[in-house]
Amino acid sequence: MSRIGKKVIPIPGGVTIDVKDRSVTVKGPLGTEAMELLQGIDLKLQGQEIEVVLDKSAGVERPDAIHGLSRAILANMVTGVSKGFEKDLEIVGVGYRATQQDKSIVLMLGFSHNVTFTPPAGVTVEVLDPTKLRVKGINKQVVGQVAANIRELRSPEPYKGKGIRYKNEKVRKKAGKTGKK
């Protein structure tokens, strides 16, 4: 059995879980998430805990991996609807900055034009400072993907380190050209 799959998931106050057939719906103060259970996976609700149970007789290939995956996805759903997820980004470079326009952000990244980024539904992007952004939402995968899409607009370059990076990300800098003597 998977070590991750064996762990029970505690249900915080204000979060309800509804299981019908193979679909699971998690409701909390921040929103609602739903998923379909994979073949060979069942849930046991025990008070304020959920246990993900593996049915090895279902004939699933690599059942331990599916067991751990299902438990991790369900745990992220519970955390997402109760606390939410967020990723912080930093903009580094002279003249590089961001401004908020309604739900979208306008980025000045050294191009000849400004870049407007509109996040998908369920995700918000806040401009904390002109050089600091925060991506928030209830779905961990979507929050991470939106942050990656913003970073991709101007990835940190290796010579001066200019661009958009995750908070506390270390960018390895290369030595520039040396002059001839």
Describe the structure.
The chain is α+β, with helices and mostly antiparallel strands and 181 residues long. It folds into two domains: 3-82, Ribosomal protein L6 (Outer Surface Protein A, domain 3), CATH 3.90.930; 85-166, Outer Surface Protein A, domain 3 (Alpha-Beta Complex), CATH 3.90.930. The chain contains three helices and 13 strands; from the N terminus they run H-E-E-E-E-E-E-H-E-E-E-E-E-E-H-E. It has helices at residues 3-6, 63-82, 140-152; strands spanning 9-10, 16-20, 23-28, 31-36, 41-46, 49-54, 85-92, 97-101, 104-108, 115-117, 123-129, 132-137, 163-166. It has a four-stranded antiparallel β-sheet, with helices on one face. It has a three-stranded antiparallel β-sheet with strand order 1-6-5. The longest helix has 20 residues, at 63-82. It starts with a helix and ends in a 15-residue tail after the last strand. The mean pLDDT is 92.
CATH level-two architecture of the largest domain: Alpha-Beta Complex
Q: Radius of gyration over alpha carbons?
A: 21 Å
Question: Low-confidence runs (pLDDT<50, min 5 residues)?
Answer: none
Strand content: 35-45%
For the largest beta-sheet, the strand count, sense and barrel status come to: 4 strands, antiparallel
**What pattern of helices and strands is seen along the backbone?**
HEEEEEEHEEEEEEHE
Average pLDDT score: 92
User: What is the level 1 CATH name of the largest domain?
Assistant: Alpha Beta
Intertermini distance: 65 Å
Please tally the helical runs, counting DSSP H or I stretches of 4 or more residues.
3
Widest beta sheet: strand line-up: 11-12-7-13
Instruction: Work out the helicity level.
Output: 10-25%
Quaternary class: single chain
The outline comes out as elongated
By DSSP, the count of extended strands is 13
